[in-house]
Amino acid sequence: MPIYLFAHTKGGVTKTTTAINMAAMRAADGRRVLLVDSDSGQSATGFVNTRKLKGLPDIPHVSLVSYLTDDEGWYRIDGDILKLAKSGRYDDILIDAGGEGHGSPEIRAALTVADKVVTPCGTSSVDTVRLAPMNSMIGEARTLNPKLKAFLFASRASTNARSSDVIEFYKDVAKFRNYTVMESVIRARDCYTKWEKTGEAVFEQKRGIKAAMQEMADLYKEVFA
Questions:
Q1: Paired residues of 54 in beta bridges
Q2: Of 33, 96, 169, 184, which cross-links 44 as Cys (Cβ 3.0–4.6 Å)?
Q3: Is the C-alpha dihedral spanning 174, 152, 179, 105 positive or negative?
Q4: Any idea where the domains of the chain sit in the sequence?
Q5: What are the record keywords, sorted (predicted)?
Q6: pLDDT tens across 23-75, in order?
């Protein structure tokens, strides 16, 4: 049973947006999905709660587990995830994990049990330089978890056809050799932030943008390939 980790040490890169959309789409495909919120911001938890408040239908077979404990921070993420994976109740576990810098305990713990880590990253140099801690942690995690695969994609890219930001992104991230760069690109679109108020994934939006739906569909194929 695969464990997918969506992680970055930098906020605002669509990490949670990616995790909740992938979870909703996976569940819609009939998979028994567990969404694990291991980010101190607890935004994925907010997504699930908003759906309930708005009276939206439950996402089939999606559950949420939060590991926020006490003042000592995050604790036993790796062991708890493995127990859930072995329970036989889920087909896929998707983890949303964040944290600052190279010492992020929640990301480090999740990396030791994940089959695949997916990192969205903004296209500016301000964003790409922050990949260094993630790249390093992935390399270290592979000493304990050699099966770990790591993927990276451009997020919040310009919608201007003349922009070269994605090309520059590919050049900037080439040095992070622990990652495989994905073909998918997620553009900066307002519909990607609506879930915070509506509790809807992109494909569930009544007035969804076709381009955004296609971007998410393309990303979905790569993530779960």
A1: none
A2: 96
A3: positive
A4: 3-223
A5: Plasmid
A6: 999 989 999 999 998 887 888 888 888 977 887 656 533 433 444 444 444 44
Distance separating alpha carbons of residues 80 and 20, to the nearest angstrom: 20
Token pair, residue 165, equals 């930001």
Tell me the C-alpha distance between 138 and 158, whole Å: 28
Q: What is the DSSP string of 122-187?
A: ESSHHHHTTHHHHHHHHHHHTTT-TT-EEEEEEEEE---TT--HHHHHHHHHTT-TT-EEEEEEEE
Is residue 90 scored above 70 in pLDDT? Answer: yes
Q: Which CATH architecture has domain 3-223?
A: 3-Layer(aba) Sandwich (3.40)
Angle between helix 210-223 and helix 15-28 axes, rounded to 10 deg: 80
Q: What is the largest CA-CA distance in the chain?
A: 50
Region class of 200: left (phi > 0), else alpha (psi between -120 and 50), else beta: beta
The residue among 213, 201, 224, 197 whose CA lies nearest residue 59 is 201
